[in-house]
Design a protein that fits this description.
2 domains; Pectate Lyase C-like; mainly beta
Length: 190
């Protein structure tokens, strides 16, 4: 299959299901209201691209490069970001449904998660140093041996994790949501 290079192109309301996006490099491209559900991004490189109002549920990410990629108002269920190429990996998530996805051992320093649903997302052993979870619903999200140093959870909610099993040095929390850090003690707070 031929490797292609596409620059500064806009894709509007395109259905890539069941066909896949062609393998290649996409730079400064915008994907608007596209359906990629259950397709494959394997070995595709995205540089400074934006996905807006797209369905990316269950997209295969094997060796996918995401370099400064923005996702806005997207449905992104069941994604395995740990399968991505880690070199220069950088994403931002805004107003997305990112439920049931995993970032196992991913390097996510300074990542912006805004106004998103992150139900049951697995952040086990991820590096989220200085990341910002702004107005995010973290119901049943898994933080285990995760580096959360200097991360900001002040406006997020429904998070529960063990502070003894995660690095939370200088992380920011707010009341009453910070009570989720005490769940392991099975105590009653009035």
């Amino acid at each position: 299959m031929e490797y292609i290079y596409i620059n500064d192109k806009r894709f509007d309301k395109t259905d890539f299901n069941p066909s896949n996006l062609s393998i290649g490099e996409y730079e400064n491209c915008v994907f608007f209201q596209c359906d990629f559900s259950a397709s494959s991004f394997s070995q595709i490189e995205f540089i400074s691209c934006e996905f807006e109002e797209c369905n990316l549920s269950n997209v295969a990410l094997k060796k996918t490069s995401l370099k400064d990629v923005r996702f806005k108002n997207c449905k992104m269920l069941g994604l395995h970001f740990e399968d991505c190429n880690p070199f220069l990996f950088k994403i931002s998530i805004d107003s997305c449904m990112l439920n049931l996805s995993t970032f196992y051992q991913s390097k996510l320093k300074n990542t912006q998660f805004k106004k998103s649903s992150l139900h049951e997302v697995d952040f086990t052993e991820a590096d989220l140093t200085q990341s910002n979870f702004s107005d995010c619903d973290l119901l049943h999200a898994n933080f285990d041996r995760t580096n959360l140093e200097k991360s900001d959870f002040r406006t997020s909610y429904n998070y529960t994790f063990d502070p003894d099993k995660n690095n939370i040095k200088k992380a920011k929390f707010s009341i009453p949501e910070v009570i989720g850090l005490l769940n392991k003690y099975d105590i009653q707070i009035s």
